[in-house]
Design a protein that fits this description.
Chain A is built from 25 helices and three strands. With about 450 residues, chain A is mostly helical. Chain A folds into five domains: about 40 residues, no CATH class; about 80 residues, no CATH class; about 80 residues; about 120 residues, no CATH class; about 70 residues, no CATH class. Chain A has a three-stranded mixed beta sheet. In chain A, helix 18 runs antiparallel to helix 19 and helix 24 packs parallel to helix 25. Chain B has about 450 residues and is α+β, with helices and mostly antiparallel strands. Chain B is about 40% helix and about 25% strand. In chain B, the strands form three sheets. In chain B, strands 5, 6, 7, 8, 9 and 10 form a six-stranded antiparallel beta sheet that branches. Chain B has a six-stranded antiparallel beta sheet with strand order 13-12-11-14-15-16. At the A-B interface, helix 1, helix 3, helix 4 and helix 8 of A face helix 2, helix 5, helix 8, helix 11 and strand 11 of B.
């Protein structure tokens, strides 16, 4: 019939006898278009459901209960672009309270987290039993495979994301078993994977790892060697630390309030193996640079904070101060951090990192005393959120006095996200902010938004 | 719109002129931003401190709705009006007596409305000069008949000489023909011709598809020729396919009336360059009757707010347009919307059978609302399908399946959607008893 329609009934008359009898009966004397109309409806009416399709397997597990509708509406508002920066906090809070979320929001969340690595674990947790199920169906959401599982198949046969999360999980619970698993596959892993897994050994790092890390100092890959040296320097009581300390003390003598330094002449093969960089460093003589690296990698237990008060001969005191600041950050030594900050030592921009090493309850006092030396926003911007309450009160009190001067804008945008739940009711949220779009109105809007968010999820 | 019932957030944000205003409005929806704010049965009001000395006076009349704000914003409604409505929808406005500045505005509005009503004078559907109207209708009928005759001879010509070469000339010729049908005051047929034009040259099977489309146009024309012989309801169907519209007032006065709690199965919005169309599908809780509420808005303008959200009941009366397959209707709401349980549904096999039954009544019927119960998602070639033991229905190619997939997670799920030959378009599904809007 179609070919007859294409060529024209003049040239090719249609053959209706090929049509089903029911159509022929209805057709009578009708022409091609009548036959086509009957055939069209015959076909449409005869449509059958698809057969032999296999339904997808169901995702196993349990769903958590949903929070109140107001909380879900807030989540939807954030996903549509309103106060989206609070999304991570919503997810974290909801997860800690045991709430799930409506599954229809998962596609938007997965799309959001796809390019934002810091959101991925949150979305994986929120997706629950659906995480791996969705990752299997949509290659763009492969990261959802991070859903944690201890199936050893994942280690031997999984993709790189599954292997990484498997290894991280095992390392958290049984670090020595994880090390053995890594040793098994180590020789056959490419350099990039070796660097990545080495990085994960920082979880639960202990003397049991030393032997393996020592051997990694002879790895083919420079990146692997550097990563191994970095880990060894963090290991208390290691041979690596002893070697470094011995090198330091061969160039340093202490006599009655005086530190006498004789800078090293060269970088030995053994020093290079331990990660000392022989290439020159901008702004520093190369011998002073070598010495600074040695001091920075030696254990702080072999030196005393009083040395900060001593005179230094043979090099600038700043070389030692910066090295100790680096060591204090690496070893998270509150004692040394306190001493370095009090001595107003040179740190090469490590003040905020040193404050971070102090116990939380000291942050407010340290901030108060350091604010004349360093911009407040630089100082508190690197601290983990949420802040302890006294620090949050100190910063908000300051901002409340700040009117609308533009210089406070950066501190305000940091504080908006960092103030803990207990301080979200600060008096600044009840002061009028005016109609205009200022840092002040944005700060207050965000604080109130977060306060309502916590209340809804409680 | 019932003024006594607060709108929900989605409805309020639907009024925003753009996304920026919606966002700014949410920023204003806070008690602290407002003073002397309140609401009555018919209006909301409040003072919002802006950058100027005087606070802005913001008011909203709920019927309509209508807005006034003394702020300089050129957006309409402005963020203050939106914020005030959001605050109200969250229960954040106290009931109060209308202050003078609000009552005077409302009075001004209602007197203006009366004046324009006086000017219009006649009620809709009431014809000023019955004789002239009859003459107009007769002239139109003549014009339609002439158009149908022209169309039929064009169709016969094409079939006699053949459709080959149509991939070159077909689109422009069919577009020209569609324009002729608009001139002939047969816009329904013009639409069918445009749909046929869209098929030309698309994929390998286009000649067969084109023949199907043309044969159904032919069916319309033949039915028009013998309109007087057809049963009255089928004649109405043919007339509506040709493009005769029945006035709203006549539908309300003469149309079949069914009272029920109408479950909102879902909605489909089709944006277009010129006109946005919204199809809202309803199903009666006790009668099981189906209904379709059509809404139109010029591009860039807002559609009316929904009477209820998908998955809720609207108690009310449907007045059906005439036809062999009563479907399109007008809704007169009689009580506030209420929550509804998860609806019952069909298997894919039963669902297809229901669509086939509708074809028997109206062979041109293209869309049909379906509720599928306990179906599970399956991969179907490059696309997706919903299946159970009786078989499966393919999802419409190109739709975003992910919300539906995420809700199901492989478990059986109830889904309401719109079926056409190309596939099933999900509108709403149920996560347990909770309705989830998909489109």
């Amino acid at each position: 019939m179609v070919s007859s329609a294409l060529l024209g009934t003049e040239r090719r008359p249609p053959h209706f006898e090929e049509l089903p009898p029911a159509i022929q009966e209805q057709l009578g004397e009708g022409g091609l278009l009548d036959a086509a109309a009957l055939a069209t409806l015959y076909k449409r009416a005869g449509r059958q459901p698809l057969q032999e399709l296999e339904p997808l397997p169901a995702a196993e597990g349990q769903d958590r209960p949903l929070p109140r509708p107001v909380a879900i509406r807030r989540l939807a508002a954030m996903l549509s672009g309103f106060q989206t920066a609070a999304l991570g906090e919503w997810l974290r809070t909801a997860a800690s309270k045991g709430w799930g979320l409506p599954p229809e929001h998962l596609p938007a969340l997965a799309d959001y987290a796809r390019g934002r690595a810091e959101y991925r674990p949150l979305v994986v947790a929120a997706a629950g039993r659906r995480a791996s199920w969705l990752a299997d169906l949509n290659p763009e959401w492969r990261f959802l495979h991070e859903a944690v599982s201890d199936d050893p198949e994942l280690w031997t046969h999984g993709n790189s994301i599954q292997r990484r999360s498997w290894f991280r999980l095992l390392r958290q619970h049984e670090p020595e078993v994880a090390l053995e698993a890594l040793k098994d596959v180590w020789p056959s892993e490419p350099a990039a994977a070796r660097v990545e897994f080495l990085g994960l050994l920082s979880i639960g790092l202990s003397p049991a790892d030393e032997e393996f890390l020592e051997s990694a100092l002879d790895d083919r890959s420079k990146e692997v060697r550097r990563a191994a040296a970095g880990l060894l320097a963090r290991l208390p009581g290691s041979q690596y630390g002893e070697r470094m300390a011995a090198r330091v003390w061969s160039h340093l003598t202490v006599t009655q309030g005086l530190l006498a330094v004789s800078l090293p002449q060269r970088v030995t093969k053994a020093m290079e193996r331990d990660g000392i960089d022989p290439e020159p460093h901008p702004g520093l003589g190369k011998r002073a640079w070598w010495f600074r690296q040695l001091v920075a990698r030696a254990p702080l237990s072999t030196v005393e904070p009083e040395y900060l008060q001593y005179k230094v001969e043979g090099c600038s005191p700043e070389v030692l101060q910066v090295a100790w600041a680096e060591a204090a950050v690496r070893e998270r030594s509150a004692e040394w951090a306190r001493a370095l900050l009090q001595a107003e030592a040179a740190t090469e921009n490590r003040i905020a990192e040193l404050v971070r090493v102090l116990p939380e309850e000291e942050w407010a006092a340290a901030t108060e005393s350091l604010r004349s030396r360093i911009d407040l926003a630089d100082l508190v911007g690197g601290l983990p959120v949420p802040w302890p309450a006294p620090l949050a009160v100190l910063v908000l009190d300051q901002l409340a006095k700040g009117g609308t001067a533009r210089s406070w804008a950066r501190l305000a945008s940091i504080a908006a996200r960092a103030v803990p739940f207990a301080v979200l009711n600060h008096p600044i949220t009840r002061e009028p902010t005016g109609e205009e779009d200022t840092w002040r109105s944005r700060l207050v809007e965000t604080l109130i938004f977060r306060r309502e968010m916590y209340e809804e999820l409680s | 719109m019932l003024s006594g019932v607060a709108w929900d957030v989605e409805q309020v944000l639907g009024l925003a002129p753009d996304a920026a205003a919606a966002k700014a409005g949410q920023g204003q929806a806070r008690v602290g931003k407002w003073s002397a704010a309140g609401c009555s049965e018919r209006a909301l009001w409040g003072l919002c401190q802006g950058s100027g000395k005087q606070p802005y006076q913001t008011m909203v009349e709920l019927a309509g709705p209508a807005f006034r704000c003394s702020c300089p914003s050129r957006k309409f409604p402005c963020k203050h009006a939106l914020g005030l409505m959001l605050l109200w929808s969250a229960g954040g406005l106290p009931a109060d007596d209308e202050p003078e500045w609000v009552t005077s505005w409302l009075a001004e509005r209602s007197s203006r409305a009366e004046r324009s009503a006086e000017r219009a004078e006649k009620k809709p559907g009431e014809v000023a000069d019955p004789l002239a109207a009859q003459q107009r209708a007769a002239r139109r009928a003549d014009r339609v008949s002439a158009g149908m005759a022209e169309l039929q001879s064009w169709l016969d010509d094409q079939i006699r000489r053949g459709l080959s070469g149509f991939d070159q000339r077909g689109y422009s010729e069919l577009s020209r023909l569609a324009a002729r049908m608009v001139d002939a005051q047969a816009p329904g047929v013009a639409g069918a011709v445009r749909r046929a034009a869209a098929v030309v040259g698309r994929g390998h099977g286009w000649p067969g598809e084109l023949l199907e489309e043309l044969s159904l146009i032919h069916l319309t024309v033949s039915a028009h020729d013998r309109l007087a012989e057809l049963p009255p309801s089928l004649a109405d169907t043919v007339q509506s396919r040709i493009g005769w519209t029945v006035e709203t007032a006549r539908v309300l006065a003469e149309g079949e009336k069914v009272e029920d709690d109408w479950l909102v199965l879902g909605r489909v919005i089709e944006p277009d360059d010129r006109l946005t169309v919204r199809r809202l599908w309803l199903r009666g809780a006790s009668t099981g009757r189906l209904g379709l509420i059509l809404n139109f808005a010029p591009a860039g303008r807002q559609l009316d707010p929904l009477p209820a959200r998908p998955g809720e009941y609207v108690p009310g009366v449907l007045s059906y347009y005439p036809g062999a397959l009563p479907m399109r209707a007008l809704l007169t709401q009689t009580a506030p919307r209420t929550a509804a349980p998860r609806p019952s549904g069909l298997t894919p096999k039963q669902a297809l059978a229901a669509y086939v039954e509708s074809l028997a009544a109206d062979p041109w019927n293209e869309r049909w609302p379906l509720v599928l119960a306990d179906v599970r998602p399956a991969v179907n070639g490059d696309g997706w399908a919903l299946v159970d033991a009786t078989g499966g229905l393919e999802l419409l190619p190109g739709i975003d399946p992910w919300k539906l997939l995420a809700v199901s997670a492989g478990d059986p799920v109830t889904v309401a959607g719109e079926w056409n030959r190309a596939g099933f378009k999900p509108m709403t599904c149920w996560d347990g008893d909770r309705p989830v809007v998909l489109s």
